[in-house]
Amino acid sequence: MENELLEKFINFLAVEKGLARNTLDSYERDLRKYLDFMKTKRPDDISASDVKSFLTWLSSSGIAAPSIARYLAALRGFHKYLVTDGFSIRDPTVNLETPRGWKRLPKTLSGTDVEALLKQPDPVTPIGLRDKAMLELLYATGLRVSELVGLKLNDINLERGFLIVIGKGSKERAVPLGEEAVYFVQSYLDHGRSRLLKGNDSDHLFISSRHRRITRQMFWERIKHYTRMAGIDRVVSPHTLRHSFATHLLDNGADLRAVQAMLGHSDISTTQIYTHVSRERLKKIHEKYHPRG
């Protein structure tokens, strides 16, 4: 039945809309994948939640945002046609907002790779001590790189083990630090920061070799350097550590709302992408180790 409806819809697009053959082929491919995902469900059995699940599955499969938007356009057209021509009584896409920011799954590091990366800075030198403190703090808090380099001395409370950061939309949030981050930030303050300042004044926490606040570009270059030293054969950015922070917390049972608060996401759906990362990892483990995987 569903295949017949698809054929009627494609014919409608060809005759009534006059769409080109390659456009029709694209619609048909996308909708066949959609109907296959829905399996035996009839059009009237498909809910908005089902459609969202399909779009999420596309994203978790590595489909890029423009392609997901194309899929959604095809679904809207298909369901609208079914209702208009009396093949269905409801359209599950009618109140479905176009998903903004559908992305490929964020790239993360394994726990082993994170440990290897964090071991690379040499804490004997002021720059190495600063870099060690920055990396530990980034992985401990999941800050955005702009938030990290923008930290000021009075934003961080090592005694109580948390920091205050102003994130997107000028929203303030408190984020816990963890013992390792507290230790290395304190070591940097005691033995590295003044050596980098060389008598200059700054209220920023992390200082460059030029005696002023380190920039995002500078820090990214430092991460590239340590990535090569660690033998990690892939691109690692400051955001990779933010992604790893969130994924590793959820992997170990953290509450989604708590992770949302620490990341500073206004919408929990943004945080939920990390649950898909965890599911994909579990699937791979199952496929690799289960005797019937």
Report on this model:
- The chain has 293 residues and is mostly helical.
- It folds into 2 domains: 2-84, DNA polymerase, domain 1, CATH 1.10.150; 111-288, hpI Integrase, Chain A (Orthogonal Bundle).
- The protein has 13 helices and 3 strands, in the order H-H-H-H-H-H-H-E-E-E-H-H-H-H-H-H.
- It has helices at 2-15, 21-38, 48-60, 65-84, 111-118, 126-141, 145-149, 179-191, 193-197, 216-230, 238-251, 256-263, 268-289, and strands at 156-157, 162-166, 172-176.
- A hairpin with a 4-residue loop joins strand 1 (156-157) and strand 2.
- The longest helix has 22 residues, at 268-289.
The fourth-level CATH homologous superfamily of the largest domain is Intergrase catalytic core
Spans of at least 5 consecutive residues whose pLDDT stays below 50 are none
SS summary, helix count: 13
Roughly what fraction of the amino acids lie in strands?
Answer: under 5%
Computed CA radius of gyration, to the nearest angstrom: 25 Å
Series of secondary-structure elements, N-terminal to C-terminal = HHHHHHHEEEHHHHHH
Features:
2 domains, DNA polymerase, domain 1, mainly alpha, elongated, hpI Integrase, Chain A
What topology emerges from the helices and strands here?
Layout: H1 2-15, H2 21-38, H3 48-60, H4 65-84, H5 111-118, H6 126-141, H7 145-149, E1 156-157, E2 162-166, E3 172-176, H8 179-191, H9 193-197, H10 216-230, H11 238-251, H12 256-263, H13 268-289
Antiparallel strand pairs: 1-2, 2-3
Helix pairs in contact: 1-2, 2-4, 5-10, 6-8, 6-11, 11-13, 12-13
